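I am writing to request your help with a piece of structural work I have in hand. I am sending you one protein, given as its amino acid sequence and as whole-number tokens for its backbone shapes. Kindly check, if you would, that the fold set down in the tokens agrees with what the sequence suggests. You will find the record immediately after this paragraph:
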Amino acid sequence: MSDGQVLHTSPYVVQIEKISESLKRLSQIFIGLEEKKKCFTNEEIDSIFEHVKEKVCKKCEKCDWCLNENIVHTCQMEYEILSAIDRYGNELNTETKRNLQAKCIRAPRFLRETLEAFHEARQNMMWTNRMVQSREGCAAQMNTFADMLRVTAKELEDSIFTDERMEKRIMDSLRKLGLRVLSINLLINKDGKYEIQVIARAMKKECVMMKEIIRAISETIGRKIVSDGTNNQIVGREYTTIVCMEGPVFYTLQGIAKIGKGCNRISGDNFTMMELPGGKQGVALSDGMGSGEIACRESTLVIELLEELLEAGFPEKMAIQMINATLVMGREEIRFSTVDLSVFDLYTGKCELIKAGASSTFIKKKDKVELLTSSRLPIGVLHTIELDSIVRQLEDGDFVIMVTDGIMDALPVGEQEIILETIIQGTNINNPKDLAHHILEQILNWNEKPPMDDMTVLVIGMWER
């Protein structure tokens, strides 16, 4: 940081920290409210017995004897029946039935009412546990959101700075273009790259082109500045927020090749390519459980949620954890989806690969192919999951090749990685789209059968500008 630049903490950062702390406390309260129940309490067992006494025993001629003189043995018999129901279900073992018939003159009715009260109490316990499970999911979501806010607050605190001389130079250059500047915010990320936010409007009736504004800021601060992609093409008479940042060193191109199970038109694999904050690009691939429409809906949901959270600025791992908790909560059946996410930093050339149940990824360099694998569970199975994260430094002309399980399963067991590495290493194709189609065609030719599962190949190439 040069002379004249001063870091400071914004009051908004302090407020975000307070909100994060509150969410953390709420999360702990949610978790501590009630634990899952594994068995009935004494009060619940007494309630079952009271139900049976009300329905059966009160109308029996031996009521006084069973509930007064012989109350200990009657209670013991009820406990034995409940234990037998819990162990054997509605069909009690022979010994328990014989003991009941010997001690109770209304044995069939006594057993029927006991079964009814037992199943009702167990149903209540299941609903209670489901509520506890949902509460745990909510607590996990709040905890994740609190962590995200803390990360955001720390990044803001580290990035916000003031440089009065730079702000004045930017303001003067924009005034010459015919803009009235309301405010200027300067930020600098962990890699030392500038981000500049300006709120301004045109002073006269004429509009000012965005490219002229970006060019003026670049010339003023002596760095290559580009639009962040959210700005309008022109600035008119209404105040507008202009966001620009230092231009990246790298750029990527992507290519996709896919086919459904049995050549079906609908595939359970879905993907997305998105611009992310901070000069990053994200490429995600999701394989829904099974194939066809149901798998397609599941993986589409995952991809749409991932796009929404990542483009809003959520950290990648937190976003996946939140999606996982969302899919698990409130579901009767388990329906899982894999997540294979590659995040490219266009400033540094680094690529972070984050996997949840995803298939292998290959990095093709000029002289070798690197295989990256994962053993983690897909999302949608457990409330909390572990994610594999691998970071690799990419160079000009490197390719990242992502595939779904259908590609690997089409090759002989134990030889999948070697065969796919050989296919990738054995071609000099530099167009990502052509390379993706080449790999898929080679796999289909190798198998010589209609696809047994949905198959997708996603290729991302990185080059220097």
